[in-house]
Each structure stands twice: as structure tokens, then as C-alpha cells.
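Researcher: Re-running this chain for the archive, since the previous output was lost when a drive failed. Same request as before.
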Amino acid sequence: MTLLELGLEVKRLRDEQKLSQLELARRAGVSRVTLARLETGVLAELGHNKLERLVNALGYELAVRPARHRRTLDDLAQERGAR
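Model: Regenerated C-alpha cells:
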């Protein structure tokens, strides 16, 4: 997943939870400008700690899986259960 794709997913989750950029940024301890730049794809780099705080503030966690991992039915069921 690219940083752009990640930013779009953060925006989707934020919108789904009806959070403003400012509210999510405050919860995660990042600036609103950083969050806006992430969501619009203009942010060149985002450290792991900031990314983890943003994802956690949305009620999610980061996961690592093998490259080119094909999603299974178990993956889909787990994703739907988390939302």
C-alpha cells in the first residue's frame, strides 16, 4: 500500500466516523496540516509513530503480511468484523 492509498483510507475511515481533520489530528497527536497533506497525497513521508497513532485513533491497528498476499475469505470476514 502506498502512502497515497493509506491517506485515502485514513480519510475514508475518518469520514465514516464523522470526525473532522482537527479532531482526529488532536486524538493522534499530529498536526491538522500533516493529516490534510496525508489525505490529499502531498505528504512525501510520514513516520511510523505518527502513522500508528493515526490508525489507532481511528480504532484500527497496523498489520504486516507477506508481499503480494492474496486476500482470503478469512481476511474479508476479519476486515468486515473490525468495521
